[in-house]
Amino acid sequence: MTNVLVCIKRVPDLGGEITLSADGMSVDDTSLGHTVSPHEECAVELAIAVAKDTGGEATVLTLGSADAIEQLRNALAVGCTGAVLLEADPGAYGPADVAAAIAELVRAREAAGTTYDLVLLGNDASDTGDFQVGIRLSYLLGRPVVAGVSTLSVTDGTVTARGGSPDGGTEIFEVPLPAVLTVMEGGIEPRYPTIPGRMKAKKVKIEQLTPSGEPAGPGRLRLKLPPAQPSQVSVLGEGADAAPAVVDLFEKLGVLR
User: I need a surface site. Which of 15, 35, 136, 248 has the fewest CB within 10 A?
Assistant: First the structure.
């Protein structure tokens, strides 16, 4: 039996042009909807699969305002069996603060007799891209960590994690439980809530707690948007005279050999 804690974050739904808040510290979400990062959608799917395969439970957790209950219920609607909201101002929490709050809950649960054998997180959040929480959490808990996982499986107290390597191949790691893993999208197709799933999720009581520590803050100077890349158009020619240039372009792109 493997109990899984999967951590998500409520983020702006960045479907169009991105603008920053006046202070440059966050994405301006005044006219945006909210969701979770694609990495975290895959982490939720993996958590549900591991819990089902091993007879355990998948609990979803987020740190944020009460608005994040919507994202927790979406995770419940696709198969998580419990949910925890660490109610706090997410803007006041940096990666180290978030990791400390999650570690506090994991330790408290363990002292009460509930162990999360596996903690899953997204590799990074789509709004700030900090890439830190999972690594910091593993150090706080004294657990092995594997970052950038695409798929995983649990057998006999060992988690086998697979992810991409810099040379384009696949890296495979085997680490003992309990462990912390960060997930990247692409290895598994996340499911989406059904109407019956949403109705069932509405009946689940979400546990609301408050972190005890005082956050140190993100330590962020500001976010910066890269300059827009100008579009370029090259005219290869007109009519039949363009044919040689098209063939040369196809050969350059590897379409023709």
Answer: 15
> Tens digit of pLDDT for each residue in 169-228?
899 999 999 999 999 998 899 988 999 999 999 999 999 999 998 898 887 778 877 777
Residue 40 token pair? 């975290």
* pLDDT for residue 257: 65
Residue 24 has pLDDT above 90, yes or no: no
Please report the sign of the dihedral spanned by the C-alpha atoms of residue 183, residue 185, residue 189, residue 195.
positive
* Torsion of Cα atoms, 101 then 209 then 49 then 180, to 10°: 10
Q: What's the CATH class of domain 4-209?
A: alpha beta
What Rg, from alpha-carbon coordinates, does the chain have?
22
Residue 170 DSSP SS3: strand
Compute the distance between CA of residue 48 and CA of residue 75 in angstroms, rounded to an integer: 9
Judged against a pLDDT cut of 90, whether residue 18 lies above it is answered with no
Residues 116-154 as b/e (b if ≥16 CB within 10 A, e otherwise) read bbbbbbbbbbbbbebebbbbbbbebbebbbbbbbbbbeb
* Of 190, 135, 179, 128, nearest in space to 157 by CA: 179
Mean pLDDT, residues 228-232: 75
DSSP for residue 213 = S
Query: Can you name the residues that pair with 209 across neighbouring β-strands?
Result: 86
Q: How far apart are CA 253 and CA 247, in angstroms?
A: 10
Residue 77 burial (C-beta neighbours within 10 Å; 0-12, 13-18, 19+): buried
Do 32 and 17 contact (CB within 8 A), yes or no? no
